[in-house]
Amino acid sequence: MTSTPAPSIPAVSSDRGGAPRVAIVTGAARGIGKAIAERLGADGLHVVVADLPGARAGIDETVAGIQAAGGRASGHEVDVVDESSVEALVAAAVADGGQLDVFVANAGIAQVEPLLDYEEKDFQKIFDVNVTGVFNSYRQAAKQFIRQGEGGKIVGAASIVAFRPFALLGPYSATKWAVRGLTQAAAMEWAEHGITVNAYGPGIVGTAMWDLIDEKLAAQQGLAKGEALAENARSILLGRVSVPEDVAKLVSFLSSPDSDYVTGQTYLVDGGIQFS
Q1: How many domains would you assign to the chain?
Q2: Is 172 a catalytic residue?
Q3: What is the uppermost EC class here (predicted)?
Q4: Which is higher by pLDDT, 196 or 111?
Q5: Closest Cα to residue 80, out of 146, 147, 175?
Q6: For 97-103, what is the mean pLDDT?
Q7: Which of 138, 172, 200, 267 is flagged as catalytic?
Q8: What is the DSSP string of 197-249?
């Protein structure tokens, strides 16, 4: 009895002959995206720092920080809602570094509102950025990887709310559930090309978004500033609110050859709030 040979699948991590691997990070002008870009720069990748035109100063600051630390980086503007803009970003990254190896679809927005107060235009906007933007990013990255024929790594921004929604973050939670599902579907379809697709799910992070959540919850519950955040933080087993660098460490792994046999997963990095 003869066995059918397994199909040949390109290796995920290609040998660049000494040239640095190239990673795009969207939403990298500040916060978690900036920390991810800085970490990948420290890992030796050429990092393409991308964000909206209005964030040009932040783009330049992130690029300068990576370069000052001895890394390689370039900056480009992008609107992830416009797929042609993402396509142009990928082309720019290839022009900068020779090819593309990693795409971190980090760009996203949040709005803190009770569901009954949410306006239709805001609901549409958050889905445009957080779901359509990730869809556009995943597709354009995959198309480039397939053209190159050497596999690649796609990493998306999910959240703890992709597993357990939070009050006042209803539509945001829905978008992150969608990212988790899209990540799984993309992993299934593109594995034959040697492309891995994973996502990261931050918990409570010391960023502007969580400052706004604290402010809204405090107003709703009659608490002082900081008390609502502290109340939520009590559920963290490791005893502290996370910082962007905690998330960047996980993305470093998902972007590296160490994760070559990992795909379709959404990893929580929340200090032990939610078990999946």
Answers
A1: 2
A2: yes
A3: oxidoreductase
A4: 196
A5: 175
A6: 98
A7: 172
A8: EEEEEE-SBSSHHHHHHHHHHHHHHT--TTHHHHHHHTT-TTSS-B-HHHHHH
